[in-house]
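Re: duplicated header lines in exported structure tokens

Our pipeline writes sequence and tokens for each protein into one text file. With two proteins the header for the second block appears twice in some exports. Here is an export where it did not happen, for reference. First protein block:
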Amino acid sequence: MTDCIFCKIVNHEIPSYKVYEDDNVYAFLDITQATKGHTLLIPKKHVTDIFEYDGDLAATVFACVPKVARALEKAFPEMEGLNIINNNKEMAYQSVFHSHIHLIPRYGKSDDFSIHFGNNQSQYSPEQMQEIAKKIEKQVIH
């Protein structure tokens, strides 16, 4: 894709701070650095989001996540945790439409990053939960 900033990074048309590269995957520092070491891991092949992955691409890309995660842990022993985030589509906060996985080191409760998961458990009965699960299960391709 010609207008994709991440494709341009992969093709070395735009500079980046590379932390890992192989034939299919490229990982580099996110320019925003939500926390020190904030890294993006992307497939070199342009895919917009997770919905465009096939099994082989998913296996290739996601197999690199632990490798880069361990590198972050070794590089920053003061790291207390790691968020791994993959946003898909604008509603889910995807802002660059080339699939990417954020690896965000966490150094303490006061670092400049947070996530909130609402608890809506009381809004669903066990029967509704079962209905939701069956609806999803029915759509999973085996």
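Second protein block, exported in the same file:
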Amino acid sequence: MTTPILDVRHYTHDDLALIRQTILDIHADAYAENMTEFDERFPWFVDHWGGNPGFACVIAYDGEQAVGFAYGAPATPGREWWREHLDPAPEKQRTFSYSELAVHPYWRKKGVADRLSRVLMDGRDEDLAVLLVDVEHPRVQALYESWGYRKVGERQPFPDSPVYAVMLVELPLP
């Protein structure tokens, strides 16, 4: 598979006002056919993650058309919640919380998700990255496994959220 030539741009906490609507639009397109009540709270999550001073986001563009994004932020030191799933937990502690990845349906299965993930993780200072994948989406979980992530447990972070597979990888990505 040849990844299309896309311009992947980096953004930070300071750029949130500029990119917020772009993120919301891509998310709406990506989930248009499967939007759940929980997904409708996505703007709150954008603001929550974007409010973190370490927020990092990448957006892929075809010309000026945004086609996908990935974002996250460093975990608060000493509060790596994923550790409860491992005994013993790794000695490495600095964790990047990979919060969200979305690609417009037209651009799926073209390597865009892989490229966004790798660009987001490239050069990170953290030792590990953690993310959550809805256990009802085994193909998405398999995609992350193909990138080196491994499932270490399951978690339901909100009473109305899906149950998620907790996935962890050492950085840099393999």
